[in-house]
Amino acid sequence: MAVPALVVRILEGTGRVNLGQGTVMTVQGAGAALSPLVGGWVAQLCGYAVAFFVLGAFAVISILLWIAFAAAGSLYTQSNQLPKPFPRALLGSFA
User: Fold this and answer.
1) Within a domain: residue 88?
2) Domains held by the chain: number
3) pLDDT digits (tens), the chain, 95 positions
4) Which of 13, 46, 62, 66 could connect to 50 by a Cys-Cys bridge, CB 3.0–4.6 Å?
5) 93 in a domain, yes or no?
6) Cβ distance 11 to 20 under 8 Å?
7) How many Cβ atoms sit within 10 Å of the Cβ of residue 71?
8) Domain that holds residue 43
């Protein structure tokens, strides 16, 4: 629940909150779907200890990214500047 709230905080006022929420939910869904696949594959090849280490590394990286983006969001809030909207050219047909 913290990540969608962070997305709203960072993107508030840009008109891209829904795009950000959709992106976060898509990535979370893909992670939930792929985690058992990756964990099972690594466990079969290298053992359970390595599988737990690999999936734990994914979790640590995710937490570090969350902290980094939370810090970026608080910088925008403190300076009363909003981040620039995502370039429409990169969105293609989704814009």
Assistant:
1) no
2) 1
3) 677 887 888 788 888 888 888 988 998 899 899 989 989 999 999 999 999 999 899 889 988 887 887 776 665 555 555 555 555 555 555 54
4) 46
5) no
6) yes
7) 9
8) 2-82
